[in-house]
Amino acid sequence: MELVRYIHLNPLRAKLISTLHELDGYPWTGHTVLLGRKKREWQSVDEVLSWFAPQRRVAMRKYREFMREGMGMGRRSDLTGGGLRRSVGGWEGVNALRGMKEYWRGDERILGDGEFISKVLKAAGEGMKRKEKLLREGWTLDRLVARVCEIVKVDPDDLRKKGRESDLSRAQGLIAYFGYHELGIRGSVLTQLFGISRPALSKTINRGERIAKEKNIKLLS
Predict the structure, then answer these.
(1) Domain boundaries, the chain
(2) What span, in angstroms and rounded, lies between the C-alpha atoms of 201 and 191?
(3) If 0-12 CB within 10 Å is exposed, 13-18 middle and 19+ buried, where does residue 4 land?
């Protein structure tokens, strides 16, 4: 709860806005979504609101009051800085670990203990190696489109057409998933390819991931 509040109060702390009323309409945080004023399908709203009350409207009211109570809060060392420092409660926690002869791996970008941080970095490194290998082998968006359309047996010229649970829909999903996660193609390029919005692209990528795993479809063996 404290972390959610701290993050969503960042615009006030940075003096981009000056009142909670302004924050209620500020589009660049998840605060407006938690208040029900904007919708983002990827944001975990129900989980956060459940911390405040079982009833949604009551939870929204209590959440906003919680935000109001924290407006005077300045920077907090336990919620900023390195991931290791945050995960163990600040420098006192780090020093306590050292006193017990425990040395956890830390990374500024990741909140978690040393084992979790190592797993994340290992996965990220493997992803980069896979991407580099694909690029070295000459994989481009055009080659990806051709390959997927060949597998699914659709015409590449039909990719902008609408379809649900069809061969065309599966082709779009696989291209979006492999393009975004394996080749690092920007979302804006993919939305333009399919003629869809960014939220729709997120659904398409998720659909492609599901299909790739169910059918065991891979670009690299």
Answers:
(1) 2-69, 78-116, 138-215
(2) 6
(3) middle
For the chain, first and last CA: distance in Å? 43
Measured CA to CA in angstroms, residue 50 lies from 30, 34, 38, 149 at distances of: 16, 11, 18, 43
Token code pair at residue 42: 């990827």
What is residue 181's DSSP assignment?
I
Tens of pLDDT, residue by residue over 169-215, are 899 999 999 999 888 888 889 999 988 888 889 899 999 999 999 98
CB 38 within 8 A of CB 32: yes
CA distance 144 to 149: 8
Residue 81 tokens, joined? 């800085």
Which positions of the chain have pLDDT values less than 50?
86, 88, 91, 97, 101-104
Neighbouring residues of 53: CB distance < 8 A, sequence distance ≥ 6: 59, 62
The pTM for the full model equals: 0.48
- CATH placement of domain 138-215: 1.10.1750.10
